[in-house]
Amino acid sequence: MPGGRGAAAHEAARRRTFAVISHPDAGKSTLTEALALHAHAITRAGAVHGKAGRRPVASDWTEMEKERGISVTAAVLQFTHRGCVLNLLDTPGHADFSEDTYRVLAAVDCAVMLIDAAKGLEEQTRKLFDVCRHRGIPVITFVNKWDRPGREALQLLDEIEREFRLRPTPVVWPVGDAGNLRGLIDVRTPGRMLRYARTPGGAHEASEEAVSAERAAAEEGPVWDQAVEELELLRAAGATHDQEAFLAGRSTPVFFGAAISNIGVRLLLEAVVDLAPPPGPRELAGGRIRPVDAPFAGLVFKVQANMDPAHRDRIAFIRVCSGVFERGMTLTRAATGRPFATKYAHSLFGQHRSTVDIAYPGDVVGLVNAHTLRVGDTLYTGQAAAFPPMPTLAPEHFAVARPVDITRTKQFRRGIAQLDEEGVIQVLVSELRGEQAPVLAAVGPMQFEVVTARMTGEFSAPIRLEPLPYHLALATDAAGAEALTRSPIRGEALTRVRDKARLALFRGRWQADSFRREFPDARLDHLVAAHD
Ligand code: GDP
Asked: Where are the beta strands (DSSP E) in 358-405?
């Protein structure tokens, strides 16, 4: 029984849509694959992926990703566990792609924050956590690599509490310090220890044996006693899981393990099913609420062209927010009020695509040949709906792009426009520079590499980049832009193609302040920064 309000509500209740956020190298790919292994989405880790070791190549769509081993695009893995449908959205592993990450996080209901036991909270963890807090996304914490020497468990909790003002409430506690992992205690069933037999290369689920407290005490001695004592300390301090506080973003349930050996991964998977919230009502621009059982509404959180070099297509990833998506239905694009036909809808499992006929709140649908769709678009049926706009982050790196071969100007323009629409880079123009010399604006410099590679690879229009000496972009208006041309301060006003915003570019804060003193009436506002 596909359609109907009842179906949407029922199916939404058994969906969990989440992302893993972490600093590069904390083990996100390893954990992703381990989760899929436990959920039986794939039977043997490594089997579906070609790369050496266990690194999934599920999301390696471009050559550059393969070379660098980083994920630039967003892949979606869907698997089922205990009657729940889990949608795991991949986030880019590098800070330079923080705009992409923002967008992906707009499409999830929960995040798993992955921490390397030896490194604790790292720069990218902090930034991503800030985004979660900003968006009100509840966070489950997984401390990874407990099989290697690292920090003390209590010290890590302390760090989370102090730095994130987030109350850590362990649900799983390690027996043995990092590097000496003897087993795990599930604090909900405290009188026993779970002991793991490692499997070579983590290709299978780790076998798990429940050992009684008496036996654990006899066999592990002081290591067991220490774990029990720490748990008592935590209980006395009231560090116990509180679902309401977790959903409100005030506390985080904490898990420990070693993704590479599948240790602790099952418990994390259970937590996603048991603790992570199902899709709920969503706020629309203007403050109205769209319940999950309202007619279909979906958010375009990612647009990606040419994922498959054999088919020059363009896929828009849509998170179903309300109602039931049925392939073939005609939707309305909120931005224009125009109809959008959904003949080519796919579900995506890494590189594999299959046609999707139906999808429910929390699911992600890939619409192929979605040439008119943009990141941030809302598609709906029934009562009109538009989700709040996605933030465009303040760029900090700027370069003029020119075609290497001027006979390829048409391809050059098409490519730049395409990459702008996908949100790969921001494109700024000014009358002074002309259309042949757009200014590319990036949050992180690696975005330039993606543009350069894709312009050559996909559009056969190699580009030359000339870096500009600016590092600060502020919002201004026509009068401010005009004032800037009269000012002796070297700055420049350009218009961002994507949203027609006027940006004033400066070398740094000193120049901006000096311009402000000179023209106190000129509008000069801060843009949303990655860490706002
Ligand atoms: P990502 O960059 O966050 O996706 O991290 P990867 O999954 O590629 O892992 C980075 C490195 O850490 C790889 O060499 C993994 O084999 C290793 N790694 C991942 N999880 C664990 C773990 O639980 N224990 C240990 N010792 N190494 C791990």
From this structure: 358-359, 364-368, 378-380, 397-403
**Cβ neighbour number for residue 57 with a 10 Å cutoff:** 18
> Which residue matches tokens 């302390």?
158
Distance 139 CA to ligand 1 centre (A): 21
Q: How many CB atoms lie within 10 A of CB 413?
A: 16
The residues lining ligand 1, judged by C-beta closer than 6 Å to any ligand atom, are 22, 24-30, 55, 93, 144-145, 147-148, 258-260
Gyration radius of the chain over CA positions = 25
- Residue (of 105, 292, 261) closest to 184 by Cα position: 261
Q: Degrees (nearest 5) of the Cα angle 499, 501, 504?
A: 145
What sign has the CA pseudo-torsion 317, 318, 324, 330?
A: negative
CA of 30 to the centre of ligand 1 (A): 6
Contact predicate 528/421, CB 8 Å: no
Under a CB-based contact definition with an 8 Å cutoff, are residues 147 and 261 in contact? yes
Q: Are 89 and 18 spatial neighbours (Cβ–Cβ below 8 Å)?
A: yes
Asked if 120 and 158 touch (Cβ cutoff 8 Å), the reply is no
Q: In the numeric block, which tokens belong to residue 242?
A: 């509180």
Ligand 1 centroid vs 251 CA: distance in angstroms?
A: 26
pLDDT tens-digit profile, the chain (532 residues): 455 678 999 999 999 999 999 988 999 989 988 888 888 653 232 323 333 333 333 333 344 444 443 333 446 788 889 999 999 988 876 667 777 888 899 999 999 999 999 999 998 888 889 889 988 999 999 999 999 999 999 999 999 999 999 999 999 999 999 999 999 999 999 889 999 986 665 567 778 899 999 999 999 999 999 999 999 999 999 999 999 999 999 999 999 999 999 999 999 999 999 999 999 999 999 999 999 999 999 999 988 876 666 666 778 889 999 999 998 899 999 999 999 988 766 655 445 556 677 899 999 988 877 888 888 999 999 999 999 988 777 899 999 999 999 999 999 999 999 899 888 899 999 988 988 899 999 988 889 998 999 999 889 999 999 999 999 999 999 999 999 998 888 899 999 998 889 999 999 999 999 999 999 999 998 886 544 4
Distance between CA atoms of 386 and 285, rounded to whole angstroms? 6
Is residue 251 within 8 Å of 169, Cβ to Cβ?
A: yes
What does the block give as tokens for 250? Answer: 């005030």
Q: Residue 306: left (phi > 0), alpha (psi -120 to 50), or beta?
A: left
Which residue owns the Cα nearest ligand 1 atom 22?
A: 145
- The C-alpha atoms of residue 262 and residue 33 are separated, in whole angstroms, by 10
Cβ-contact 254, 141 below 8 angstroms? yes
| Closest C-alpha to ligand 1, atom 11 | 25
Atom of ligand 1 nearest to the CA of 258: 23
Give 259 Cα–ligand 1 centroid separation in angstroms: 8
The residues pairing with 317 across neighbouring beta strands, listed in sequence order, are: 302, 366
